[in-house]
Amino acid sequence: MSNILDLAGIGAGPFNLAVAALMWDKSLTHRFFEAKAEFSWHPGLMLPGAMMQTSYLKDLVTPVDPTNPCSFLAYLVEKQRFYDFLNAEQRTVSRREFADYLGWAAKRLDSVEMGSRVQSVVDKGSYFELDIHGPKGQELVKAKNICVAGGKKPHIPEFCRPQLSGSCFHALEIALRNPDVHGKRVAVIGGGQTGAEVVINLLNKQWGKPEQVTWVSRRSNYLPLDETPFTNDWFTPAYVDVFRQLSQPRKEQVVAEQKLASDGISPDTLKELYQLFYRLVHLEGDRDRMVLMPNREMVDISNYGAYRIQLQNHLLGGADGQEWLDADIVILCTGLSEALPPCIAPLQDRIVRDEEGRLLLNDAFSAQLKGDDSDRRLYFLGTGRFSHGIAEPQLSLSAWRAARVVNDLHRETVYNNQQPNHYMNWITPKKAKEAAVA
Ligand SMILES: Cc1cc2nc3c(=O)[nH]c(=O)nc-3n(C[C@H](O)[C@H](O)[C@H](O)COP(=O)(O)OP(=O)(O)OC[C@H]3O[C@@H](n4cnc5c(N)ncnc54)[C@H](O)[C@@H]3O)c2cc1C
Q1: Domain stop point among 332, 356, 375
Q2: 3-state SS assignment for residue 171
Q3: How much is the average pLDDT of 408-421?
Q4: Is the dihedral of CA 264, 335, 340, 357 positive or negative?
Q5: Best probe residue, ligand 1, of 19, 34, 337 (max atoms within 8 Å of C-beta)
């Protein structure tokens, strides 16, 4: 037996867990390495009341392999809560329950090795060599193909970096930091779902009773996530295949136009917020506790004992739009950026990229190494927003994407993941256009 694995996975968040779950029959040799000792899913944002923005049926496997032992329904049955779950009539589940499901799946999959950090990946010509630091010490693992799903990193505006501290930090850490906000002026920067969840928890005194909470949003208002049926068609396999046919400049424009389909605040959260403000102002007479500042972009921040945040009000524009805000605590809800894990550094310069320096991924999410004519695969999951569309960083298509990877590894259709769209005529096929002209 060869000691070269068919696949090594870097990271065991939901994207690679989906691949591991679809490889459960073990016809190809594989191991998935996860740096964390215990499974957790964005633990720093596991805030009370946080709900999923995606249906539980879009789990690790169901859309392509509904009878797979790692489905959300299998989890409910094993936990003996199937009927309770149905009777609760939830459209979506809490992030807490979904994280528990993911952890349950990770435990079921013996290919997932927790506490195993991939330190580096080196190209050895016909295979990759991974330097693993795990519970049993260091190990060099050989793999013909690798699948990288190491997650994203917090986005922090460059001018803000010098101010990072225990009182100015990214929201991704808030539940782990447990900041004491009692009697403090707190500025929440960012008008997306995370900003909304942080504001709700601040006003519910999760970390003490703040003197004042100011919520700054660059957007023109606190805008909803569009989760209506036709918008959801952008999160389907059929749409990804259409998106793949667009020119790169068109892809960039389309991704920008579709922003609120993935980045807005869920309507239920907006309603909860508005009702919370109503209660504060009209029933509790606490008019000054909350200040809403839409249309403002944070453009600078300094510290003179407290933070002074410079804002640009885009409603006014120009010099008239310059404003300042003072705060004792600044919570950055400024999103996440795509990132490759540092272990990939030895390969970085050899990965073929587009003119913007982005990974050039094929339909099966695989990138090419310059000068490599082997048939190895180097898959990247969750980094292809500009090559595969807005669904790429989301859970919606994780099972379908994993099936593409597994089919590509096998060089055959192990999972039939054809899910055509039966209504939307996104583009007229080339043949039909030619026939019309002839
Ligand atoms: C708070 C929050 C809520 C979200 N909710 C939703 C939602 O409701 N619906 C939706 O569609 N999307 C949601 N998303 C977006 C997206 O689905 C998640 O970010 C998802 O976790 C991405 O999966 P991933 O596997 O790529 O990355 P991650 O979940 O970040 O997992 C990556 C894993 O790789 C490991 N790793 C990194 N480097 C190494 C290494 N060198 N060696 C070993 N392991 C390594 C990390 O420890 C980590 O566990 C949410 C994102 C956030 C931040």
Answers
A1: 332
A2: helix
A3: 91
A4: positive
A5: 34
| Structural domain for 356, as ranges | 4-152+338-410
Is residue 384 in contact with ligand 1, taking CB distance under 6 Å?
no
For 149-172, the pLDDT digits (tens) are 999 999 999 999 999 999 999 999
**DSSP H helices in 112-191:** 174-177
Point out the ligand 1 atom lying closest to the alpha carbon of residue 119: 41
Phi then psi for residue 17, to 5 deg, are -60, -35
**Residue 196 pLDDT:** 97
Domain membership of residue 425 (yes or no) is no
Question: Nearest-CA neighbor of 214 among 128, 329, 300?
Answer: 329
From 41, 42, 152, the mutation candidate for ligand 1 (largest count of ligand atoms within 8 A of CB) is 42
pLDDT at 269: 95
DSSP state of 223: P
CA gap 36, 258 in Å, rounded: 34
Q: Are strands 137-148 and 153-154 parallel, antiparallel or unpaired?
A: unpaired
Ligand 1 centroid–CA 125 distance in Å is 30
CB 406 within 8 A of CB 15: no
Residue 1 has pLDDT above 70, yes or no: no
275: domain CATH number is 3.50.50.60
Do 301 and 165 lie in a common domain?
yes
Atom of ligand 1 nearest to the CA of 341: 38
Interval 15-45: pLDDT, tens: 999 999 999 988 999 999 999 999 999 999 9
CA of 153 to the centre of ligand 1 (A): 10
